[in-house]
Amino acid sequence: MKRLIPLLTLTLLYACASNTPPNIIVILADDAGYADFGFMGSMDLETPNLDSLASDGIVFSDAHVSATVCAPSRAGLITGRYQQSFGFECNIPPFGEGIDPDLPTIGNLLQSAGYKTIAIGKWHLGESDEYHPNNRGFDEFFGFLGGSRSYFLNEKEDRPNHPHAILKNHEQVNFESYLTDVFGDVAVNYIEQYKNQQFFIYLSFNAVHTPMQARKDHLDKYKDHFRQKLAAMTWSMDENVGKVIRKLKEEGLYENTLTFFLSDNGGATNNQSSVYPLKGWKGNKYEGGHRIPFTCTWPKGFKSAPKFNGLTSAFDIFATCLEVAKVENIEDFPTDGISLMPFLKGKKTTDPHESLFWRKDEMAGMRLEGYKLIRLDGYGYRLYDLRKDIGEMEDLSATEDSVLNLMTEQLEAWESGMQDPDWIESEGWRAVTYEIHQALMENRLPKYMSPGEMRKYFDNIQN
User: Fold this and answer.
1) Catalytic site includes residue 437
2) What is the pTM assigned to this prediction?
3) What pLDDT, on the 0 to 100 scale, is given for residue 462?
4) Looking at the predicted structure, is the pLDDT value of residue 396 above 70?
């Protein structure tokens, strides 16, 4: 009988521990290419820490963000909804809009469940005080409010009230080292500070977004690499992910931490990234614009497994977090996402989504299982079967008219439930993006890739 008491105590302790909600970390890369990580098959960019993290969890091969540019993609992730449902369709203008303050974020809801909530790095969801992370559900913030900035201390940006200045909560702070290292160190420090309670960390690196700046020792490491700067910047980001994982393991927290890693959109054309074998890139509705590297790891919650090929969205992170954090009255917070837990635990083998939708300005797209539809207002449609044509080269709109009609109807039905955008992008970029989409639909190179190139193109025609 004496032996049963400690055994019973251990059993009860284990049962309590196994029911303890996990810590949650969302690690977000910026403008990273679909093919630019070892766990996604890269042969030239080194990401050993991310590869190890992925091997402890599951890699999603058909995962997507809800937008192909930074700010609306982040709005979808942090609210768990199509951002078009609240008018956040395009990148925000400087000192302009943000997420509706009445709309709960993942930070708000995890706070309600007792989590300490922390945002680190790039925000890009509104620069005025009402949109500040501390007012949008995050107890702690260390980062910058704008869309991009220098990786080193910069006199132009690091000054009071500049949207790219580094803030600790509301107070401007300076930094001495490479910014990716700073964000990694800050994450480690917050884990130390809050290791005795549940925490949620939104670690939003600005790597590998331009400007292409890296540490000298990392540039030297890759001095002969044909993508030297990207290789160096990626290596630095991976190093700092490694810092975070090592700290979790040192504190005995790794096993019960739910960790996501993903990019905010497809690879950009100006940072040397690769989306092979996909077509398109950041800013357009082809797969290369919104299909992303995506991993999920929770050693105590589910076993590692080979790749999951079901259609998945970044806003599934929101629904998954609410479930594992045991947020009360979860049904009161509508989400377009689906909790991934039944899929991660092998209880469901279907796709999380049958369809997904994208829209920005005159461009729209949708997935219906393996089919992909692209629409360009004033120009027409393209239809692809990704199961046979992952590169979206063969247009089936003339031969698969029943599928085309079905998807067109579904896209229009989805749009009927969305709002008109609260703001749109500049006329120059809208014209450039239109030309890029038209070129991709015609399987040709775009005539221009920026407003400056567009002006030169038409000047040459006129001359």
Assistant:
1) no
2) 0.94
3) 83
4) yes
